[in-house]
C-alpha cells in the first residue's frame, strides 16, 4: 500500500510539473530561511553556556537610584567586592574580579605589540571553564607577578620555545611570569581576551579600587551547589550600605546568571527590560512567518487544484477506500514534497552559509554528524509536511463520490472564503515584514546620520601612553605645526564614550540629601575645538587663565540639574575642589544613542593620565595628517606601535548589531514577498486555466486585453488591500514597541505604511499580470476549441 501511495504521489508531481515546482521551490525557500535563522538563534542561545558550572556562575549587579533620574543598573562594582563576599558569605564558593578589556604593550626581546586582555583575580579560572593547555587554573593567577596568555600570543612571542615560566614585559615597565597558556576560546563565548594579568597588578596602579565608593570592575561569584540565587540576592541587597555604614546610600546589589547576561543586558528603572533576546525572539517569529507563508502556498494550490483530483477521490471511495486511508495518501504526498523541498533547502543553506556568516559575523556550520541537526531537519520536514498538507487532506477526503462523479466539482462558499483568507493572512505577514524593514532601516539610518553635537568626521584618536604622557604638551605643540593637523587635544575618555561618573559634585543651594549623578571627564586645552563642540555661553579652557586648572565647563543637561539661572561665573565644587563654571556647552552625545544625554562636567587634568590624544585633521588631508601623526608619534614614543582610530568608523562599529539586524530584516522581508508571490503566481495560473473558455467568449464579444487583465487581477488585488487593513495596525503596534528601546528615535509616519501597501500591490499586480496577460492574449478560437 505504501508503495502504491508513493507511486501515485510521484506521478502527480510529474503530471503537474509547474505546480510541483512552485510548491517545492516555495517550501524550500521557506525551509532554507528558517534553517538559517534557527542556526543563528541556536548560536545566540548557546552563548556562554559551555562553562561546566554554568548554573552556579553569577555576576553581581548594582541598582543605583539618583535624584530626579530613573534607577540605573550597572555591572560595575567596587574592586574589593568579590573578596569581601567570599569572606562574609559561606554560600560563595569562589569569587573573582575582572576588568574591562585593556590594550597593553607586550614585549619579549625584539618582538612587541599591543594586545587586548584583562586583569582578573585568582579565582577567575576556577569559576570559568577556560581551558589551559599549560598551567594549573587553580593557581595560575594567584601570584601577583603572573600572567596567562593565549596560544596565539605564545606562538607570536615564543615561536621556538615553551612559553610557560618565561618572562614577558608589560607596558615597558613591569616584568610578569607566564603561569599558564590558554587554549583557543570557544566561539560561543562573549568574554574576549588574549591574556589575563593578576589582579594585584591592577590594584597597584589604581588605588581607587580599594574604596567602596568607586566602581568599575565586574564581580563574579560561584555559589555553592545548594544555594538559592534569589535568596542570596536578597541577602546581599544592602551589602554596600552595611560596609559603608551609610544607610542613606542608594545602591542595592543583586545577582544575574552569567550565561543570561549576553541576551538579557538591558535594564529599565532597575528591572530587566530585554536586550539581544528581543532580536532572537523577533527572528524566531520571522522564521515562523516565512514557513507559514510557504505552507499557505501549498495549501492554496492543493485545494484550488482539488477539482482535478475530485474524480480520483470519488472512484477510490466507490471501490472501498475509507477517509483515513485517503487522508494518509494526501498527507504522504505533502510529506514527499516537503522532503524534496528539504533536500533543496539544505543545498541552498550550504551554498548561502558562508555569505550568511560574513553578514552576521558568525562561524555557523552544517555539521552532519550532529544528531540534533538531524532531529531538527526531521522535525522541520514533518511540521511543514503535516501543516501544509492537513487542510488539503481533510478537504479532499471529505468529498462525496455521488457529487464528484456527476460532473465538475463546485466549491462551497466556505472553501473559497477559506482559500481567500489564507491569501489575506499570507500577504498580511508580508506587509508586516515590509513595514518592519522600512522602519528598522530608517531608525538605523537616523542613528548613523544623527548630529551628535560634535563633528565625528576628520577626528582621529590614539592612546595617550608611554612617553606621550610625560611629554604631551611638547608633543602637542610640535604636532600643531605639522601639515594636515587642525587641532590637538587629549581626554580621559574616547570621543564616543564617557565611562566615568560621580556624585561628588556640590554647589551653592544644593539639597544635601539629594544624590545626583554626573558624568565627568578630564580634558586638556583645545578639547572643544578638537571635538568641534559648540559653546552656548562662556568660554573654553585657556592657558591664559591659570585658575582654569580648578574651573569647570558643563553641558546644558548639567546646567538644568544644578539650577543656576546664569551658570557662567557661579561656584561649583567637584571632588572637593572649589572652582568656577567658565562655560556651558550645547548638549552632545557622550554615550550610546540608546540613552538620553546625561549631565556632564569637563575639568582640566593637572597630572599625567591614561586616555586618548584627539587630532582634528584638515578636510581632505587625512593621509597627510596621518603621516604627520606617525612621524611625530615615533619621535616621542618610539617603543610603542603607532595605532589610531577614526571616530566615524568607530561610531559605525558601535551600531554594527543594529546594522546587521537591518540587513537581515531586508533579506527576510524580500524572501517573504517572493514566496508569497510564488503562491499568487500559481493561483493566478490556475484561475486563468479554469476560466479559459470564459476568457475566449469575452474576447469574441469584444473584451480588450486590458479588460481581461483587470477581470483576472481585481479579486487578488482586493485581497492584498484587505491584507493591508489587517497588517498595518499590527505593524504600528509592533514597531512602536521596538522603537521605545531607543532614547533617540524616529517618528512612525504615514508614508511608511503607504510605501509598504503600494509595494505589495505593485509586486502582486506584476506577479498576476504575467499570467493574466498571457491568458488575455490567447487566441479565442483555440481556447474555445480546446475547451
Automatic annotation (TrEMBL):
Positions of the ABC3 transporter permease C-terminal domain: 285-396, 668-780
Q: Which domain of life is it from?
A: Bacteria
Chain ranges passing through the membrane: 21-41, 279-301, 335-353, 373-396, 417-441, 667-688, 716-735, 750-770
Please tell me whether the keyword Transmembrane is annotated for this protein: yes
Organismal lineage: Bacteria, Pseudomonadati, Bacteroidota, Cytophagia, Cytophagales
| Stretches assigned to the MacB-like periplasmic core domain | 20-238, 429-626
The UniProt keyword set, sorted, is: Cell membrane, Membrane, Transmembrane, Transmembrane helix
**Record has Signal as a keyword:** no
Q: Where in the cell is it found?
A: Cell membrane
- What is the membrane topology here? Multi-pass membrane protein
Pfam families the UniProt entry points to? FtsX (PF02687), MacB_PCD (PF12704)
Q: Which PROSITE patterns match?
A: PROKAR_LIPOPROTEIN
Q: Which InterPro entries match?
A: ABC3_permease_C, MacB_PCD, Macrolide_Exporter_MacB
Q: Which organism is it from?
A: Larkinella bovis
Name of the molecule in the record: ABC transporter permease
Amino acid at each position: 500500500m505504501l508503495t502504491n501511495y508513493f507511486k501515485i504521489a510521484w506521478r502527480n508531481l510529474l503530471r503537474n510539473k509547474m505546480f510541483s515546482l512552485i510548491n517545492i521551490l516555495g517550501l524550500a525557500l521557506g525551509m532554507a530561511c528558517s534553517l538559517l535563522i534557527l542556526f543563528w538563534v541556536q548560536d545566540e542561545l548557546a552563548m556562554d553556556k559551555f562553562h561546566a558550572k554554568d548554573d552556579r556562575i553569577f555576576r553581581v549587579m548594582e541598582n543605583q537610584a539618583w535624584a530626579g533620574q530613573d534607577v540605573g543598573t550597572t555591572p560595575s562594582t567596587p574592586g574589593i567586592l568579590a573578596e569581601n563576599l567570599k569572606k562574609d558569605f559561606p554560600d560563595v564558593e569562589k569569587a573573582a574580579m575582572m576588568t574591562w578589556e585593556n590594550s597593553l604593550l607586550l614585549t619579549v626581546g625584539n618582538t612587541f605589540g599591543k594586545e587586548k586582555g584583562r586583569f582578573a583575580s585568582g579565582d577567575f579560572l576556577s569559576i570559568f571553564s577556560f581551558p589551559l593547555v599549560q598551567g594549573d587554573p587553580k593557581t595560575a593567577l594567584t601570584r601577583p607577578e603572573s600572567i596567562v596568555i593565549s596560544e596565539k600570543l605564545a606562538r607570536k612571542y615564543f615561536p621556538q620555545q615553551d612559553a610557560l615560566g618565561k618572562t614577558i614585559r608589560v607596558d615597558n615597565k613591569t616584568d610578569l611570569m607566564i603561569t599558564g597558556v590558554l587554549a583557543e576560546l570557544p566561539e560561543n563565548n562573549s568574554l574576549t581576551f588574549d591574556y589575563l594579568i593578576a589582579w594585584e597588578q591592577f590594584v597597584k596602579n589604581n588605588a581607587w579600587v580599594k574604596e567602596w565608593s568607586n566602581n568599575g570592575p565586574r564581580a563574579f561569584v560561584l555559589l555553592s551547589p545548594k544555594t538559592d540565587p534569589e535568596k542570596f540576592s536578597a541577602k546581599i541587597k544592602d551589602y554596600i550600605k552595611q560596609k559603608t555604614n551609610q544607610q542613606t546610600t542608594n545602591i542595592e546589589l543583586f545577582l544575574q546568571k552569567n550565561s543570561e547576561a549576553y541576551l538579557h543586558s538591558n535594564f529599565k528603572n532597575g528591572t530587566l527590560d530585554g536586550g539581544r533576546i528581543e532580536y532572537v525572539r523577533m527572528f524566531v517569529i520571522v522564521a515562523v512567518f516565512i514557513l507559514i507563508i510557504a505552507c499557505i502556498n501549498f495549501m492554496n494550490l492543493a485545494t484550488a487544484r482539488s477539482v482535478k483530483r475530485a474524480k480520483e477521490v470519488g472512484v477510490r471511495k466507490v471501490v472501498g477506500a475509507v477517509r483515513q486511508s485517503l487522508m494518509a495518501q494526501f498527507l504522504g504526498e505533502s510529506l514527499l514534497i516537503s522532503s524534496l523541498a528539504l533536500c533543496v533547502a539544505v543545498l541552498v543553506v550550504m551554498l548561502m552559509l558562508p555569505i550568511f556568516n560574513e553578514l552576521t559575523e558568525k562561524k555557523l556550520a552544517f555539521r552532519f554528524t550532529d544528531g540534533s541537526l538531524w532531529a531538527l531537519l526531521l522535525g522541520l520536514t514533518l511540521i511543514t509536511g503535516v501543516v501544509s498538507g492537513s487542510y488539503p487532506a481533510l478537504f479532499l477526503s471529505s468529498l462525496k463520490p455521488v457529487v464528484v462523479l456527476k460532473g465538475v466539482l463546485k466549491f462551497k462558499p466556505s472553501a473559497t472564503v477559506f482559500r481567500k483568507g489564507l491569501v489575506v493572512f499570507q500577504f498580511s505577514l508580508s506587509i508586516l515584514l515590509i513595514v518592519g524593514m522600512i522602519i528598522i532601516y530608517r531608525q538605523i539610518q537616523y542613528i548613523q546620520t544623527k548630529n551628535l553635537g560634535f563633528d565625528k568626521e576628520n577626528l582621529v584618536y590614539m592612546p595617550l601612553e608611554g612617553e606621550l604622557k610625560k611629554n604631551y604638551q611638547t608633543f602637542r605643540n610640535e604636532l600643531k605645526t605639522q601639515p594636515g593637523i587642525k587641532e590637538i587635544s587629549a581626554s580621559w575618555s574616547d570621543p564616543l564614550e564617557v565611562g566615568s561618573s560621580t556624585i561628588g559634585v556640590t554647589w551653592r543651594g544644593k539639597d544635601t540629601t539629594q544624590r545626583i549623578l554626573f558624568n565627568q571627564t578630564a580634558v586638556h586645552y583645545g578639547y572643544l575645538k578638537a571635538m568641534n563642540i559648540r559653546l552656548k555661553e562662556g568660554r573654553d579652557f585657556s592657558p591664559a587663565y591659570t585658575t582654569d586648572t580648578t574651573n569647570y565647563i558643563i553641558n546644558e543637561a548639567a546646567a538644568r540639574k544644578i539650577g543656576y539661572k546664569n551658570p557662567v561665573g557661579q561656584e561649583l565644587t567637584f571632588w572637593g575642589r572649589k572652582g568656577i563654571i567658565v562655560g556651558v556647552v550645547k548638549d552632545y552625545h557622550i554615550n550610546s544613542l540608546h540613552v538620553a544625554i546625561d549631565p556632564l562636567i569637563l575639568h582640566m587634568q593637572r597630572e599625567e593620565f591614561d586616555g586618548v590624544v584627539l587630532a582634528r585633521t584638515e578636510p581632505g588631508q587625512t593621509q597627510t595628517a596621518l603621516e604627520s601623526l606617525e612621524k611625530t608619534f615615533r619621535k616621542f614614543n618610539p617603543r610603542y606601535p603607532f595605532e589610531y582610530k577614526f571616530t566615524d568608523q568607530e561610531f559605525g562599529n558601535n551600531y554594527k548589531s543594529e546594522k546587521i539586524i537591518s540587513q537581515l530584516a531586508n533579506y527576510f522581508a524580500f524572501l517573504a514577498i517572493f514566496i508569497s508571490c510564488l503562491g499568487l503566481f500559481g493561483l493566478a495560473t490556475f484561475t486563468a486555466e479554469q476560466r479559459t473558455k470564459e476568457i475566449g467568449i469575452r474576447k469574441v464579444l469584444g473584451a480588450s486585453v486590458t479588460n481581461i487583465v483587470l477581470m483576472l487581477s481585481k479579486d487578488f488585488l482586493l485581497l492584498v488591500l484587505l491584507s493591508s487593513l489587517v497588517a498595518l495596525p499590527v505593524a504600528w503596534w509592533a514597531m512602536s514597541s521596538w522603537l521605545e528601546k531607543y532614547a533617540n528615535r524616529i517618528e512612525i509616519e504615514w508614508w511608511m505604511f503607504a510605501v509598504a501597501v503600494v509595494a505589495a500591490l505593485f509586486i502582486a499586480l506584476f506577479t498576476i499580470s504575467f499570467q493574466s496577460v498571457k491568458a488575455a492574449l490567447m487566441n479565442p478560437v483555440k481556447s474555445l476549441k480546446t475547451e
